[in-house]
Request: fold
Amino acid sequence: MRYRFYLAILVAAFGVVGCGTANNYLAKKSKTIEYYRIFDLQTTAPRAAIAKAASNGLGRNVNNAQEAMPIPTGELPEQPGRFKLVNPFEGSRLAALASASGGLGVRMVSCEGAVWTARAERRVSGSNRVEISMCLWQYKQGYRLDQYAQLITQEGGLYQVSRELANAMVGTPEQWTEKALLDVVRQIHVSSGAKVTLVEAQPEVGGTPWLDALDSMPR
Reply:
């Protein structure tokens, strides 16, 4: 009965449009979208306080997280580090198969020299999920926070109508991904008063949403 209900809605919606549009709507698709953000944080707050704020911000939006605070070695560097994407299966049959199937393959974030790292996941609207990695570096002028995320979404099929209804009520997977990234920076700003500057981003970020109140949903 549920399938018939969805099908009836689809037929009514696309009956006057044409079979091409209806077929595109019904076609099952799996999409992976990559995000990264690099923020500069100017504050004199101690390393442990910044790491705690980042952890609290991350915990507002994820289902599970694994965090680490490596012991720093040597003096603070003049310049902060930067995350790197590595494929531990590079050159293997598994990597070739993932590439041939149109996927991004296994991409892991390397945070060499970071003072705090985190990996987390959030399930968004059923079968959609976002995987997040973060690296916090301390350098002589302050801190640098690198964020990387992969949003894996499912589209099309008979469940697309229910997905769109859920998105309309609680927000889209893209909005939740942005919120999960922004709330970490918002928590750091609120807790330490750090001056936050966006250094790089993909997709681009308009305005200064990291200055909005915690739990604000991006539009």
User: Anything to note?
Assistant: The chain has a mean pLDDT of 83. Residues 173-192 form the longest helix (20 residues).
